[in-house]
Specification:
globular, four-stranded parallel beta sheet, binds D-glutamic acid
Length: about 280
């Protein structure tokens, strides 16, 4: 078991590019910190994969990031947070190290949802995996039992983003269809959680098809503020993070494709390195 305090960047993991919407806000809100981003592009999407597979892939990524001296890893992926986080925290971390931490994106998002809604009817959009796991329903029930949660899976949204079709006219059909399917479950929904880190890329289309009185809760800023507060409250973890304003990008697929695609998310030129997970 590793017990020594090693210093390194904050690890940020996603199945592909979606976690970049979270990383972007980390860099805005915590500009002095170093980040190590890992996208498992070779095996994305995770949204349609089984619990066991998402858990196995996520654990491999977490272990890899630990080996790169990350003491804190954020699963910037709702699917991995829904299907793998709890088992990793409860079963794997105690065997790996008592000084390392893994956090997800679902808990911080559900914490603030009660402040945003007035009708108390919340909509959640996510991958099939996230919706089927019921993680949002369970977490919201724990924190805000007075809220009613309606969910809908949007299996086409991640491929639209990953294939650079999120601004195309073809995307309109799927965005409208899925928003209608959610809103048909309750006419009182006033807050929608975009429970997938890819979805902010579709924001323009989502806003186009949603009534203006509905709040859209996009996770990046919420999760970044929550990370800042976590680091303030956990000085040992904070001390184990390096702070040279550097971000390094890793992908399990072609580094050239990653660089092109990631530039769309980050708005700046990205240099990525290919690695293999096992
Ligand atoms: N970005 C991931 C999420 O937040 C899912 C994408 C995928 O299906 O791999 O759920």
């Amino acid at each position: 078991m590793l017990c020594m305090l090693t210093q390194g960047p904050i690890g940020v993991f996603d199945s592909g590019y979606g976690g970049l919407t979270i990383l972007k806000e980390f860099k805005n809100i915590l500009p002095q910190y170093d980040f190590l981003y890992l996208g498992d592009n070779a095996r994305a999407p995770y949204g349609t994969r089984s619990f066991d597979t998402v858990y196995e892939y996520t654990l491999q990524a977490v272990k890899y990031l630990f080996e790169q001296n990350c003491s804190l890893v954020i699963l910037a992926c709702n699917t991995a947070s829904a299907k793998a986080l709890r088992t990793i925290q409860q079963n794997d971390l105690p065997k790996i190290s008592n000084s390392k931490r893994v956090l997800g994106v679902i808990r911080p998002t559900t914490e603030i949802v009660g402040e945003v809604t007035t009708t108390k009817h919340i909509g959640v959009l996510g991958t099939k995996g996230t919706v089927m796991s019921n993680s949002y329903v369970v977490e919201i029930e724990k924190l805000h039992p007075e809220l009613q949660v309606f969910q809908h899976a949007c299996p086409m949204w991640v491929p639209l983003v990953e294939n650079n079709e999120y601004l195309s006219p073809g995307a309109d059909y799927f965005v409208k269809k899925d928003l209608d399917a959610l809103l048909n479950q309750s006419s009182n929904i006033d807050t929608i959680i975009l429970g997938c880190t890819h979805y902010p890329l579709l924001m323009e289309k989502i806003q186009q098809f949603l009534p203006p009185n509905i709040n859209i809760l996009s996770q990046g800023e919420v999760v970044a503020k929550s990370l800042k507060s976590y680091l303030n409250r956990h000085s040992n973890i904070n001390q184990s993070t390096t702070k040279n304003s550097r971000t390094v990008y890793l992908t399990t697929d072609s580094s050239e494709s990653f660089a092109i695609q990631a530039k769309i998310f980050m708005g700046e030129t990205i240099d990525a390195r290919q690695i293999h997970l096992k």
